[in-house]
Amino acid sequence: MYTQGLDGQVPDTAAHTDEATLEQRFLARVDAEEKIEPKDWMPVRYRNTLIRQISQHAHSEIVGMLPEGNWITRAPTLKRKAILIAKVQDEGGHGAYLYSAAETLGVSRDQLVEQLLSGKAKYSSIFNYPTPTWADVGAIGWLVDGAAIMNQIPLCRCSYGPYARAMVRVCREESFHQRQGYDLMLQLARGSEAQKRMAQEALNRWWWPALMMFGPSDANSTHTGDSQRWKIKRFSNDELRQKFVDFTVPQAKFLGLAVPDPELRWDEHRQQYEFGPIDWSEFDQVLKGNGPCNAERIAARRNAHAAGAWVREAASAYAAKRRQPSANIAA
Amino acid sequence: MNAKLPNVDAQALFHYVLRLGDLSLILGQRLGEWVGHAPALEEDLGVANIALDLIGQARLLLSYAGEIEGCGRDEDKLAYLREQGGYFNAILAEQPNGDFGQTIVRQVLIDAFQLELYERMTGSLDERLASIAAKSVKEVRYHLRYSSGWLVRLGDGTEESHARVQSALNTLWPYTVELFAEDDLDQLMADSGIAPRLSAVHAAWSARLEGILADSTLLRPADRPHLWHGKRGQHSEHLGYILAEMQYLQRAYPEACW
Amino acid sequence: MEDKHQWPLYEVFVRARGGLDHKHTGSLHAPDAAMALSHARDLYTRRQEGVSIWVVPSTAIVASDPAENDSLFEPARDKIYRHPTFYEIPDEVKTL
């Protein structure tokens, strides 16, 4: 919204008041927990950080439709099929809310989509892992959505109004995603030997990638400092990761599944779980495009976009004819 | 349970309800293939909503069919564990998605059929079917609004889009004949006051299509005789692949609960 | 590369229940207003969040400039006599 007023990126007011004063005022508002709205003055770096983060988030939702969408036609019961369609549909909806939020900052949906399709924009590397079995659908809901919620709840209080409001909506809808995933795993864990094995193998596949979803360790995270000062980010990567482990390990125990970490143990003194080192080289590789499904995920998005071009064009042409009946005759 | 079954053979009613349920099931399954791959994000949402409604209708109808049969088969046993010849959807539903235009054409043809059928079935003497029809008719009315809205835009959009949907219409039209070909079972259902006469449904459908096609600047293809009978379990090659995919887990793990 | 056929942006307003105002809910892209309404239904009322929807082309919205907030909104601050609490009425006087 209001994008038309922001085409120039730098609002007029900047010319009249000096940058430092404006930035001071901006920071004071952020400190006072006021929300920054689209037409408000904001530092260019703040705007760019938000565009980067919100669009990555949106892309993740869009690409995230694929690994689970993969199972819609094979869902084993009609109820599960309906739940899965609704869930994947929600991911698309979340992508749409987030694209809308990003657009308030002066980028167009088209630019954002182009960045995704060209490989320029990043998205959560977790979606570059495959879903070979039905249990992966459960593991994604339980672990991936679980980790996502942990990241997202603090974002509901993010300093940028449109992002915060989109996240409120996302979080409200997301809570069913994690629960349906756990419910699916529970059914498998209580099922046949083959189903239990399926569940365990899915946990083995998704555990470490889920921990990596919180991003690099605080010591190596480039964006954390600014983002925390601007109240875009309220907790550090490591804090959130720890919280996730503490919540999730007992849930795995309840399922009777083993967390694939030989070093995992309860630390009585710190009252939290201690876990083994994360293999960040794997994370880096997936981020660089060498994950098991990077190429195929982007190809799927590109195909959908290219195959849909004539449809989007036709609808625009139809609308144009309705707007200008005379142009129709002239043509 | 069913309040009253007007003098009709349970086996016949069972088959008839499967015809309705399978049409929704197979079409819903087909639409599910689109989710995540639609021409625009907003369309992913739209197509998914229709798929959800159709799967919901299939669940109600297959559950009811299972109760009529009385052999302990529930919606999933019926959806997942029948042989191909035991599915009674008209074969239009199982035709491939093709491009978005072909999916939309298939959707308009079936939406309009379901709308005319369910509107009349709300007065069925079979109370269960009447109530399922009353619920479904609201959903189907929206489906047709969506699909015909798209057909008009594609038909009257660009030269390319017009050519694509006209070609899809030519391809799919012949399969519509089966929807309205009244056989003994359809006749029995109409005679018993359970279902409307297909001739009445056909006339209304035809008039409705006339309007939509005119708005879409598309030409109505000629009716041709049809030699397939999905409604009696004789299917195209496509259904086998649909079932192989849909039934995979249930077949691979026969003992399992999901 | 800008897609020349990018669908325009619409703002969506949803009335949550009868008796309430329409409230801004978000935005979406659609080729025209009728489609925008359809998309809004699918995108913003999947969980029965509304009983009525408005869609408005985003370009039709004219917004006030926050830089002018001082002159637009500050002057109302000292008009405290507009509020009922400004007036002290003896307790004996009822229904006022």
Task: Describe this protein's structure.
The complex is a heterotrimer of chains A (331), B (258) and C (96). With 331 residues, chain A is mostly helical. Helices cover 66% and strands 2% of the residues of chain A. Chain A is globular, with a radius of gyration of 22 Å. Residues 1-11 and 327-331 of chain A have low confidence and may be disordered. With 258 residues, chain B is mostly helical. Chain C is elongated and about 65 Å long. Chain C has helices at residues 33-44, 69-73; strands spanning 9-15, 22-29, 52-57. Chain C is α+β, with helices and mostly antiparallel strands. The longest helix of chain C is centred in the middle third of the chain and has 12 residues, at 33-44. In chain C, strand 1 and strand 2 (22-29) form a beta hairpin.
Task: Name a few traits of the molecule.
heterotrimer, B: 258 residues, mainly alpha, Ferritin, 66% helix, globular, C: 96 residues, alpha+beta, Ubiquitin-like (UB roll), 3-stranded antiparallel beta sheet, 2 helices
Please give the CATH class of chain B: Mainly Alpha
Helix percent of chain B reads: 55-70%
CATH-defined fold name of chain B: Ferritin
CATH superfamily of chain B: Ferritin, core subunit, four-helix bundle
Order of helices and strands of chain C: EEHEH
Q: Report the mean per-residue pLDDT of chain C as an integer.
A: 92
Q: Alpha-carbon distance between the termini of chain B?
A: 26 Å
Radius of gyration of chain B: 18 Å
The helix content of chain C is 10-25%
Task: Name the beta content range of chain B.
Answer: under 5%
CATH superfamily of chain C: Phenylacetic acid degradation B
Low-confidence stretches of chain B: none
The ordered H/E elements of chain B are HHHHHHHHHH
What is the CATH class designation of chain C? Alpha Beta
Alpha carbon gap, first and last residue of chain C:
65 Å
The main β sheet of chain B shows up as:
none
What is the count of DSSP helices of chain B, taking H or I runs of 4+ residues?
Answer: 10
Distinct helical segment count of chain C: 2
Which class do the helix and strand fractions of chain C yield? alpha+beta
